[in-house]
Amino acid sequence: MSKFFLRAPWCPLWLVLLFVAVTNAQEWKKIPIPTLPAFHPQEPKRVELPNGMVIFLQEDHELPFIDMTARIRGGSRVEPATKTGLVSLYGEVWRTGGTKSQTGDQLDDYLEIRAAKVETGANADSTTIGLSSLKEDFNDVFKVFTDLLRDPEFRADKLELAKREAADSISRRNDEASQVAAREAAKLAYGKDNPYVREPEYATVDAVTRQDLVDWHNKYVYPNNIILGVAGDFDPAQMEAKLRAAFASWAKGPAVKPPDIQFTPAKPGYYLIKREDVNQSWIRMVTLGTTRRNPDYYAIEVFNEAFGGGFSARLIQNIRTAQGLAYAVGGGISTRFDHPGITQLAMATKSESTVKAINSLFEQIDLLKTSKPVTDEEIKRAKDTILNNFVFNFDTPGKVLQERMAYEYYGYPPDFLEQYRAGIEKVTTADVARVANKYLHKDQLAVLVTGNAADFDKPLSSLGSVQNVDITIPPPPGSATQQGSEKPTSNDPAAQGKKESNPEGKALVSKVVQALGGAEKLNSVKSVKSKFTVDQKTGQMPGQIQAESSIVYPDHMKLDMTMAQGSFSIVVTPAAAFVESGGQVIQELPPSRRDESMAQIHRDLIYIAQHASDPAFTFAASGSEKSGDTDTAIVDVSGPGVDLRWFVDPQSGKVVRETYQAMGRSGPENTETAFSDWRPVNGLNLPFHRANKQNGQDASTTQFTSFELNPQVDPKIFEKPASAPQQ
Amino acid sequence: MSRVALLSQPIPRNYSALIRQALAVAVLTMVLAVLSAAQDLAAFEKRVTVKKLPNGLTAIVCVRPKTAPVFSFYTNVDAGSVQDPMGKTGLAHMFEHMAFKGTDTIGTKDYAAEKVALQKVEDVYAQYIHERDKPVDRDEAKTKQLEQQWQDAIKEAQQYVVPNQFSEIIESNGGENVNASTSEDHTEYHYSFAVNRLELWAYLESSRFIHPVFREFYKERDVVKEERRMRTDSSPIGRLIEQFIETSFSAHPYHRPTIGYMSDLNTFSATDAQEFFNRYYIPSNMVVAVAGDFDPNQAMGIIEKYFSQIPSHPKPDERTTTEPPQNSERTVVLHERSQPIYLEGYHRPDYRDKDDAVYDALADLLSEGRTSRLYRSLVRDKKIASEAEGGTGFPGVKYPHIFYFFAAPMPGHTPEEVATAIHAEIDRLKKEHITDDELKMVKTRAKANLLRSLDDNEGLATNLALYQTLYGDWRELFRTVDRINAVSKADIRRVAGQVFVPTNRTVGIIESANAGGAQ
User: Fold this and answer.
1) Residues B382, B386: Cα–Cα separation, whole Å
2) Distance of alpha carbon B37 from its chain centroid, rounded?
3) How much of chain A, in percent, has pLDDT values that exceed 90?
4) Whether residues A423 and A558 fall in one domain
5) A449: helix, coil or strand?
6) Does A425 share its domain with A506?
7) Displacement of CA B488 from its chain's centroid (Å)
8) What residue segments make up the domains of chain B, in order of their start?
9) How far apart are the first and last CA of chain A?
10) Which of B110, B303, B510, B519 best probes binding to A when mutated, by most A CB atoms within 10 angstroms?
11) Is the peptide bond before A554 cis (omega within 30 degrees of 0)?
């Protein structure tokens, strides 16, 4: 800025100000940007052994470490759907299960005292084994690496531990709304059964055996399926000799064929996951993306930068900065090396601006195609961003190695990064406009909202028809799993598979039917009304509950409860499930609680005994176990909506106790009910006292005061009150 | 340190990662004496230059010759949410967001006019909240009218704005990993550039502290409110950590969330943020470190040229209330629709305490790797937790803080069970010496961990700036060597016995809110 101008008496003030603004706006552009010195990152040396193993050697003497990774073809995308979780368990137990000569625990001690790591892992398309070691310990650590690679033991106790951890992670997967949103959106984009997104369940994890892990290893771990990279402080010739000595004699195995994977995106439209414990909605709009082999890849990259990349991109500019609607917002057309990515627009906004935010995201797509197509200026900025940042793709020897290994793995040319730079440079504004039009369509997006629907600015249904997404975690199969505290390992959910009836089981259930009053009398029962008192010992609301229940078999129940906090009723029928109080619906029951209430009807002794001869029900005797002082016979009961274990006194035919998996509010719980105080009721013989344990701890007792068989039940009691739900 | 940041980070799937991100524990890197020749202090003395500029700002230049033509920087401002004024929680973090809004030359079409318009926004806003927050005699019509005037003034000012121009310059010049974050102790700014943009960086980085302009303040405040909803309000773990910290500290400002309370976020003004900036963003509170492959003399020259222009002020009084002894166990229980979590914490002295390295050794012993005590006991052997760890530096290190234990109970197991198991491990620490092998592992790992942090521009810039801020000398990064090496088995027992006692304990639990039902 020249002082001359400021002092010039003939210069009107507004002109000075204008000049200041204009020249200052250029201030940063005046700073010299010298040409970047020529930089040729060191490329790793590629060695292919005669048995097909590919090795990359990347020398780097800055620090006294050596790091190694082997990537092996075959990943969770090719595991059987009935054993989803197998490869993840394999990736864990490969390391923890130890080698033929050392247990995993021994390896832990051996490695940690050297501050070294050997770790294994699993991905969708490969498994990995890696080491990291101080240079001076390399030989020791490499020995562990090769032992694990060639002679893993997969010890059963570590598989058991890994399965428990998998069950823990299943039970926790709905805890954080943000994780639920990301996971379920991916399922909408790829199809819920697609191998990239399907999830382990209690049953599929339980189905995995040690032999499965051994078989997997024998099927995939061959030199011709392995790409091995090593980086660090070594002499390349010596390292190459060492690796040749270790692996050259290893025989080739069968080649792995690329899998044929189906992608079946969900129908476009609105999907809702209701959560009451959040004040912010996650909005994720998804559809199938494409691969990096697509000639449009470079134009897509530039589009993504301009549309959903950084601060200068449209989504942040318009949704975050201009409207303050979100902290997290972004999106773009996604590409992967060998399968389509997930094209996605995503943001998190307060419940009260959910619909407004959806419309804002849609508007951004509309503007691209109508009044505000991408401009030359936006394209220049996006290309500058990518190209000026390009050096960070290869600014460390480790990154260069990683890139090369990825290209090798997916069959991309070794100079793919150079092609990428050239490809980006050629992209024009017209190219970007074309890909925006080709890949981004409002009406092809599945819009998933995870949030507190009661607080939305408008109902989601004001935008179109809405499908609720049920994220209830399927309970473990054969829920009769808890066998008492003396056998903690049998606690594992899903320990039981579905069993066939056996003669012993049939005989025992006949005894149970007799003890309850006989088949004829049982089958005449169409409805039951009972009065009882519940003493809650734990949980949210300890204290006493007075209750009256009306059950009309097979699927109508109304429960009237009075407790310190007041009176309310729970109604569950196939048509509705809600809580009412004072003639008003105060809460709709979420699917998991509705299912659990329905399961309560179906766990009823009378209901099961009525199905003693139903071929859909199985009764399998499975040994015996003490129940208190009584020797009881175990009967596994299974039928539609029923999965439990009875402990039957073979003398009296009385069911002394039962165990089953009940759904708590946040996951399955091992539950046990003990029956006592048997009394006659109009020809039946029923237990008037029930003691419940949850996860081994006393939870509640129920004392009945009366049962009424086949009472008059007014069907209206199961109907919803006319008033609208609050909130 | 628990951090909130300018841009969201991916949310980790794994629980301890989630906890760690929330706690973002600042374990000061530990070191062992035997460093190999190229990585010891003497070698770094030759590669590191430090200069205190006349205005009080400390500049550190660390050269990594013959690597790649790139550099990273880390600006550490020695003020964080502990310095938030009463009733204005979240202000330190709010300023961090504003530091990306530009200057009197970047981000404006006409600063002179914009300045007038921004002042009007402030004037009307002050009248608006004065009326809005009157406890009695509030005039609703007037409140509404003032709110409208405030919104109109914002629109008026907006016409002069070139939105996100500051960030756009960084991005289009290839800025890598551009972000900033605020913790209880510090506020940090960082990114990486190619080396030919060193001067451009110095210009951009200094100018945002010479003449920041608080434009688009109230829209950005809405963004921060969304950040709070995301990190805290809508996350069970976020809710637990906020409650846990509030319960742990009663007097020291650590008890307040860095992100701020909603009512404060609805109230504080750009004027408040300007005052915060004026008070704490003084050169003597700032350390700027750069690491990369450049000519160190030239780099220092560029830094001096630009950063010397930041005007200096006297250092503000930063005294805070010292947290008094706890003297009673405190517990906070959250009933959530999620699986149970157990967290407990014990008060410990600040990072300058003579036993600081003992706490680091304890954290390593309890949590690091597959041989760690909590993994072996709770996860591997008792099989009652899927994850378990202990750590220090929570929520910060500058003031007396918390050593925490955390565990995620397995299905069918309760927070009480994991608490009992954690206490059994604590008793073991008090009653028996740790083994020779364990002590050796701690020390060897410390050596390896330090070494591993030295070949990375970002890590180097961060550590050098952080140690310079905390100790007034970056060399402490290497000297902690002697301290960790001096830790004995007896030290571990002594400190465990002093600190891990019930009256010094705060417990935070997530209980699953179960369906209950009427069986």
Assistant:
1) 10
2) 33
3) 63
4) no
5) strand
6) no
7) 30
8) 109-160, 330-512
9) 61
10) B519
11) yes
- Which residues 6+ apart lie within 8 Å of B300 measured at CB? B49, B51, B59, B61
Residues B196, A36: C-beta atoms closer than 8 Å: yes
CA distances from B240 to A279, B26, B507 (A): 16, 20, 10
Domain holding A200, by residue range, is 45-175+194-247
How many separate domains does chain A show?
A: 4
- Residues A540 and A429 placed together within one structural domain of the fold: no
Lookup: tokens for A555:
């699927």
**Domain-embedded: residue A553:** yes
Question: What does the H/E/C string look like for A174-214?
Answer: CCCHHHHHHHHHHHHHHCCCCCCCCCCCHHHHHCCCHHHHH
How far is C-alpha B517 from the geometric centre of its chain's CA atoms?
43
Q: The domain spanning residue A441 has which CATH number? A: 3.30.830.10
Which residues of chain A lie closer than 8 angstroms to B226, CB-CB?
A: 280, 324-328, 348-350
Which DSSP helix (H) or strand (E) runs through A122? strand A117-122
Mean pLDDT of A531-559: 81
Q: Are B284 and B56 in contact (CB under 8 A)?
A: yes
Query: Within an 8 Å CB–CB cutoff, is residue A285 touching chain B?
Result: no
Confidence of residue B5 (pLDDT cuts 50, 70, 90): low
Question: Is residue A538 located within the same domain as residue A624?
Answer: yes
**Could you tell me which chain A residue has the CA closest to the CA of B294?**
A37
Q: What is the DSSP string of B26-73?
A: -PPP---S---GGGSHHHHHHHEEEEE-TTS-EEEEEE-TTS-SEEEE
Same domain? For A515 and A596 the reply is yes
> Are A425 and A301 contained in the same domain?
yes
Interface contact flag, A108 B370, Cβ < 8 Å: yes
- Closest CB to B517 among A17, A391, A600: A600
- Homologous superfamily, domain B330-512: Metalloenzyme, LuxS/M16 peptidase-like (3.30.830.10)
List the alpha helices (DSSP H) in B91-235: 91-98, 111-132, 140-158, 165-172, 198-210, 217-228
Which of the residues B39, B105, B172, B368 would you substitute to probe the A interface, choosing the one with the greatest number of A C-beta atoms within 10 Å? B172
Q: Has residue A491 been placed in a domain?
A: no
Query: Which parts of B309-451 are beta strand (E)?
Result: 330-336, 341-348, 385-394, 401-409
Judge whether A384 lies within some domain.
yes
Residue type, A42: Q
Give ∠ CA A651-A655-A660 in degrees, rounded to 5: 145
Q: Are residues A111 and A200 in the same domain?
A: yes
pTM of the complete model: 0.78
The side-by-side arrangement of strands in the sheet containing A54-59 is: A45-48, A54-59, A226-232, A65-73, A126-134, A117-122
| Distance, CA of B82 to CA of B322 (rounded, Å) | 12
Task: Please name the member of B163, B172, B448 whose beta carbon is closest to the beta carbon of A385.
Answer: B172
Please compute, for residue B217, the number of CA atoms within 13 A of its CA located in the half-sphere on the CB side.
Answer: 29
Helix ranges, B249-329 (H): 262-265, 270-280, 296-307
A682 belongs to a structural domain:
yes
Interface pTM (ipTM) of the complex? 0.92
Rounded Cα gap, residues A652 and A655, in angstroms: 9
Token representation of residue B19: 């906890």
Q: Say whether both A349 and A455 belong to one domain.
A: yes
- Which residue in the set B174, B200, B514 is minimally distant from A665, CB to CB? B514
B63-116 pLDDT per residue, tens? 999 899 999 999 999 999 999 999 999 999 999 999 999 999 999 999 999 999
**pLDDT per residue over B267-285, tens digit each?**
999 999 999 999 999 999 9
Q: Is the CB of residue B476 less than 8 Å away from at least one CB of chain A?
A: no
Q: Does A136 touch chain B (CB under 8 A)?
A: no
pLDDT above 70 covers a percentage of chain A that reads: 91
Q: Distances from the Cα of B493 to the Cαs of B151, B375, B378, in angstroms?
A: 61, 20, 21
